[in-house]
Amino acid sequence: xxxxxxxxxxxxxxxxxxxxxxxxxxxxxxxxxxxxxxxxxxxxxxxxxxxxxxxxxxxxxxxxxxxxxxxxxxxxxxxxxxxxxxxxxxxxxxxxxxxxxxxxxxxxxxxxxxxxxxxxxxxxxxxxxxxxxxxxxxxxxxxxxxxxxxxxxxxxxxxxxxxxxxxxxxxxxxxxxxxxxxxxxxxxxxxxxxxxxxxxxxxxxxxxxxxxxxxxxxxxxxxxxxxxxxxxxxxxxxxxxxxxxxxxxxxxxxxxxxxxxxxxxxxxxxxxxxxxxxxxxxxxxxxxxxxxxxx
Length: 295
What we know:
Blueprint lengths: L17 H6 L6 E5 L3 H10 L3 E4 L3 H4 L11 H12 L6 E5 L8 H13 L5 E3 L7 H9 L4 E6 L5 H4 L9 H17 L3 E5 L3 H10 L4 E4 L7 E5 H4 L17 H18 L13 H8 L9
Parallel strand pairs: 1-2, 1-8, 2-3, 3-4, 4-5, 5-6, 6-7, 7-8
């Protein structure tokens, strides 16, 4: 009998598709989790998330880089494939890294890699109007696209850092136009990152595709957070929009400190962790002559 614990949603046999996520617009809130490998994707899927996103934040959270710009296409494919092995129900979305979709040809080549090699069921890319041709080409080729507007980390050099976007009426208008453009280009959903809740609500009401918020208030059609942030496993910085639902980083440190202490006291491994020979064999083993090196 299986001992795996899964939520009622995760127990559904039918894997979710991009059209399924699209159909959730205006209904039950869509729960997305950014995860980067087999165990985190498996736990997220078992917990009942609707979308597992293998984000390019992999660069900072898992690989220890300073920003998202240095993660490579090979690394994204590698981690997306690993995550795919843990996902049974959720829609698996692979993030397209910096400059991997700078042109339509690159977008098709690299989007195809995430689908074929990484076993993603959709891809995500950042930007609004400037990436409309890429979204159109990808969707025409049969690759579902999740768009991403607002704070787009790959463009942080242009923004001057990780700053909320759309705070002025003019900036809000531009965000709305970006969101409508990616919808018209064929995106099945759009991430809204670090924008005022008022703007997020306008966009959500204006679009017929789901909006997935991260730092956009609770008015969007769904939410996304990073696995390591939710569990308190990443301490380098904590954005305002993050809520830590557990402190497993501290619990992990305490567990490893206890392990080290027990190793040094020789209380680990104990009898329950040790293999023993049958009693009759011990005496025979002790008769074995072993050559030792001269000191």
